[in-house]
């Protein structure tokens, strides 16, 4: 592909030796300056597919204003892309910065004020900062929309359209998405100019290196099954997906009580908490990372052996994204899905999407008829009722104390002098 020597050194630093299919197909037209619309599965190497052509165009010089904007749906994905850019552009003068929520904006503001070649951003925080004159994208040359379908799922498309309306019309634009629902196709028609279409007719499926299996299990025994598999060594390191943040917290609690090194990552966790959990997982300090779909994009762990769907995903596309966290860049891995009887219709939808029936497995010696020791999840109605009851109880105790003349916490009775006064 005749890359600049400095970029070739970055490619060697990254450890790339052979281009993946999406890279082979999309890099040549991107190098020619064409817009690109690509349907690319998770773990296919798409980050390098859009980063390398842009670096090639800018390798020798730094600009005074931002020249590249990459929009992503999640903070984790923004951080991952930024890390890749730092390696690939290590031997060039180019600088990259991230812009996303969950952290104080000061550092991000300084990067935009000082001028940075490449900005990797989530739509919400970027839109907030674009109201200021120092967020200058008038010199933009390249725009990338990554994980377009997830931006649609997360409701970011209106923000994306507002951002695009403020950018220069003359630019090279690339849109990458694992699936191409109608609104994403329309977005591509509105903002891409005669794009090279890469694999847009291909049905999205998991990478070939993933061994997939369904583990039928009653809902109340899912946690026990996971603990038993970890105890026996059937699962050593795993990224475990749950349906909701509450279920992620409950599973984290139960695994931690069992002595398993585990952390959780979801939308209610602060950015420092999410970064630490992910770093501990990558470095092997914890064995299990429990996550929700919102946090799934951008979790890139080298040689991750297991992805476990604790809950069967509602949409087949989410299944493909979840299991794509393993067997990345040509490696192999196992994707296991715990399926309760009530989730069978979702399993059927996944099998239709992947084009074949998935293998069924059971764990020898595990008691699949055992009774539940306690409920895994308290229904949201009960949680709300309990919260309201607790608040009512607190107010009642406050009134009783007030009637008895008991001062509120932190205040002395008016007739009690302070020690210093005495």
The fraction of residues assigned to DSSP E strands is 5-15%
CATH class of the largest domain: Alpha Beta
Derived structural class: alpha/beta
Strand order of the largest sheet: 3-4-2-5-6-1-7
| Strands, total number | 14
Instruction: Give the assembly state of these chains.
Output: single chain
- State the separation between the terminal residues, measured CA to CA: 86 Å
Q: Strand count, sense and closure of the main sheet?
A: 7 strands, parallel
Poorly predicted tracts of residues = 414-422
Which radius of gyration do the C-alpha atoms yield? 25 Å
Q: Count every helix, treating DSSP H or I runs of 4 or more residues as helices.
A: 16
What percentage of residues falls in helices of 4 or more residues?
A: 40-55%
Under the CATH scheme, the architecture of the largest domain is: 3-Layer(aba) Sandwich
CATH fold-level name of the largest domain: Rossmann fold
How would you describe this protein?
The chain starts with a helix and ends in an 18-residue tail after the last helix. It is globular and about 65 Å long. 41% of the residues lie in helices and 14% in strands. With 422 residues, the chain is of the alpha/beta class. The strands form two sheets. A seven-stranded parallel sheet has the order 3-4-2-5-6-1-7, with helices on both faces. It has a seven-stranded parallel sheet with strand order 10-11-9-12-13-8-14, sandwiched between helices.
């Amino acid at each position: 592909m005749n890359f600049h020597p400095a970029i070739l050194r970055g490619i060697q630093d990254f450890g790339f030796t052979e281009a993946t299919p999406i890279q082979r197909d999309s890099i040549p037209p991107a190098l020619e300056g064409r817009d690109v619309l690509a349907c690319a599965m998770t773990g296919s190497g798409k980050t390098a597919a859009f980063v390398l052509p842009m670096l090639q165009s800018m390798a020798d010089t730094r600009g005074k204003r931002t020249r590249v904007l990459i929009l992503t749906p999640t903070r984790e994905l923004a951080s991952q892309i930024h890390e890749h850019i730092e390696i690939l552009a290590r031997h060039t003068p180019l600088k990259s910065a991230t812009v996303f929520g969950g952290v104080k904006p000061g550092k991000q503001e300084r990067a935009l004020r000082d001028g940075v070649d490449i900005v990797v951003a989530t739509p919400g925080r970027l839109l907030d900062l674009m109201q200021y004159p120092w967020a200058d994208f008038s010199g933009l040359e390249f725009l990338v929309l990554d994980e377009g379908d997830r931006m649609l799922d997360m409701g970011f498309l209106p923000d994306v359209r507002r951002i695009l309306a403020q950018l220069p019309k003359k630019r090279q634009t690339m849109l990458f998405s694992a699936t191409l629902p109608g609104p994403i196709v329309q977005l591509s028609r509105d903002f891409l100019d005669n794009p090279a279409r890469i694999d847009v007719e291909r049905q999205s499926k998991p990478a070939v290196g993933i061994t997939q299996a369904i583990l039928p299990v009653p809902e109340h025994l899912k946690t026990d099954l996971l603990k038993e598999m970890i105890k026996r060594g059937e699962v050593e390191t795993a990224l475990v997906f749950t349906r909701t943040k509450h279920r992620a917290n409950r599973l984290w609690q139960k695994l931690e009580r069992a002595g398993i090194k585990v952390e959780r990552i979801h939308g209610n966790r602060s950015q420092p908490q999410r970064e630490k959990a992910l770093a501990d997982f990558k470095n092997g300090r914890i064995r299990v990372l429990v996550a929700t779909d919102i946090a799934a994009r951008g979790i890139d762990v080298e040689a991750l052996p297991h992805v476990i769907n604790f809950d069967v995903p509602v949409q087949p596309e989410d299944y493909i994204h979840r299991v794509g966290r393993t067997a990345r860049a040509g490696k192999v891995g196992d994707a296991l899905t715990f399926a309760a009887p009530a989730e069978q219709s979702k399993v059927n939808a996944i099998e239709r999407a992947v084009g074949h029936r998935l293998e069924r497995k059971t764990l020898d010696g595990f008691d699949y008829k055992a009774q539940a020791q306690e409920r895994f999840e308290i229904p949201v109605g009960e949680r709300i009722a309990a919260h309201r009851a607790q608040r009512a109880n607190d107010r009642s105790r406050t009134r009783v104390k007030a009637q008895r003349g008991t001062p509120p916490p932190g205040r002395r009775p008016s007739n009690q002098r302070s020690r210093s006064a005495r």
